[in-house]
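Before a colleague's protein record goes any further, I have to sign it off. What it holds is a sequence and that sequence's fold in token form. Would you go through it and say whether the fold makes sense for this chain? The record follows directly below this note.
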Amino acid sequence: MWCDALGVRILTCESMDYPQKLLRIPDLPLVLYCTGDTGWLNAPATVGIVGTRKPTEYGLRAAEDIGRGLAKAGAVIVSGLAEGLDSAGHRAALCERSPTIGILGIPIDRTYPTINRPMRKEIESNGCIISEYPPKSEPLGKYGFLQRNRLIAALSAAVVVVEAKEKSGTMYTVDYAKQYRRPVFAVPGSIYSVNSVGTNGLLRTGCAKAVTKAEDLFDLLHLKNTKQIPQAVRPTPAPMSETEKKVLACVSSESKGVEELIAESGLSASILSVTLMKLDGHRMLKSKFFNGAADVAVYAKFFKCLQLLYYVYLFTISSTSSIVRSNGPVCSSFSVHMAAANRPDSSYPLPCERHQR
């Protein structure tokens, strides 16, 4: 209900616009809350620009020059909407009138720092803001921002570190990038600057490649040194299955309980839960039955039913020891997503640990 009132779109793993890059990480978020145009979440040439919140003039200029060069060539800049170099990365894209993606470590209806509210409005008009945390929920403090850093790394085809201290939140982003096998680039800095100790260390140990201009990433991202206008990616929806058609036929504008839906569809609670999430993710349910403000209460009751079924499904998954664990390509099966989510992190090396977890 809050999401409808605030214009927040909910994406599940089965939603058409759910980022495909996130489906390939072991700790994928099951739900994303989004404002703006979610079509940008599947842009191929996404670049994370990250760094300290208290940059030097050198760092700000490097972020602007590299960010604008990438945006001009068609890349989509990804960052955390924080002060400092995150904001510089977003601003570089906006200056080129190119889309950019902001990832929050707080509930989707909040902006931190508050001074970035005007920038957020600009991003939402030609880009996207995402969060793992629903509106009206309580922030998780430092933990939320660290989890935000993993999504920046996962959503990026490459990560650029502009300036960073040896021990900082930026280094968590680097660790996640290495864990997810994303290439890392670092801007060389002064040996006398504390803000360059982290970046110079990444270069010295071979954890990152040096970047001094946007063109250094063009080959990796298949970009050209010409003005390119990126296009939002709209995945083509797959044809509805017989199960989805059956469930859609059982749903009406009248509020129904879990038992009634199970009885009418003849499906188990787990299968019904996954099917409802697919349909809701594709916006079929709401667009067909909930068209106006008068139907918000009905939709809210229905979504509570969906959530209950979803919790039943999660309980079933957690209670079953026979989940197939696969390192192969990720398919659209929700069970495979859950298997990936339960895969041990130890299967992903972390060669760039520069701080104590």
Q: What stands out?
A: The beta strands are 9-12, 31-36, 46-50, 76-79, 100-103, 127-131, 158-161, 184-186, 209-210.
